[in-house]
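S.,

Sequence below, as promised.
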Amino acid sequence: MGLLEKFSYWDSYCYLVIKITRMDMEPGMEPDVREFLVRIMQTISMSIVWLVVNMTLGIYFDLAFFLGHPSVWNCLFYLWFLISFGLLLYYFHKKWRGKL
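The prediction came back faster than expected:
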């Protein structure tokens, strides 16, 4: 019985030490890490939205393909594609240029 009492006492002591040391730490993650992960998720999300919009317009509505000759809609699609890509790069630059 003496051996079991020692283990039980030791487990309680370890639990108490862990509990006390964790009370000093704040719950959750550090603000810098959280801000960095939010930036990564916003970058990935905006990239996916940009890709889905351009793929839908280009492939689903056949605006990316020249069927015989280029039409006005093809030219407008490629103009939109270049302008939106430039805006996406500007968004990334603005998002990541600040301090982490």
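Residues 29-96 form one domain.

Coffee later?
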